[in-house]
Amino acid sequence: MTLISLTGPSRPPRSGQPAKSLVITLHGYGSNGDDLLSLAHYWDKLLPDTHFSSPNAPQSVPGFDMMYQWFSIETMDPFKLAQGAHAAAPILDAFIDSEITRLGITKAQTALVGFSQGTMMALQIGLTSKQPYGGIVGYSGALVGNPLIASKPPVLLVHGDQDERVPLGASQLALQRMVAAGIDVQLHISPTTGHTIAMDGLQLGGAFLARVLNS
């Protein structure tokens, strides 16, 4: 079976030099790669030699132009969410492998950053990869299903305490499950914050990425 080839915007290293690391940003439901690529603006001073790639998810949201989904969320049934993330994983894996090969770096020099549904994907592929990624940052998301953990990269979870779409409890449960699996994971709760990324979360995400990719 031929996999769908993902496309999306990217941003080369701020330094103008060949990339020494890679950040893959994964947007949420009903968004696109341009949305999450904007994070590079906040982080590229800390990561001057990092290439940012932000693929559009493989499925269009029916009836909307330039809006994509990693999988359908007609229902929030946990089993269906896990099925969707599992089905989309090979498509995303193929894109990341092609970017790593093109840039001549390794998975250890690559970090995954997700928002909402993108966090579900980042945790799905990041924890099941046999070769560990440098790190994972998950904003306002969840660990869906029961993925077979094959590697244990450091993980930073960030969630607003007033998130009306994906409850804070989703990240708290993900934290518990990853701690039990022996993963180096932290959870930061952004106060008075809904389903978005607040400035404190941006700052913590940038510091985390600089630590895991510049070391």
Automatic annotation (TrEMBL):
It comes from the Bacteria. SUPFAM superfamilies: alpha/beta-Hydrolases. Residues 16-209 form the Phospholipase/carboxylesterase/thioesterase domain. The keyword Ion transport does not apply. Keywords: Hydrolase. InterPro entries: AB_hydrolase_fold (IPR029058), LYPA1-2/EST-like (IPR050565), PLipase/COase/thioEstase (IPR003140). Pfam families: Abhydrolase_2. Belongs to the AB hydrolase superfamily. AB hydrolase 2 family. This is Phospholipase. It comes from Candidatus Phycosocius spiralis.
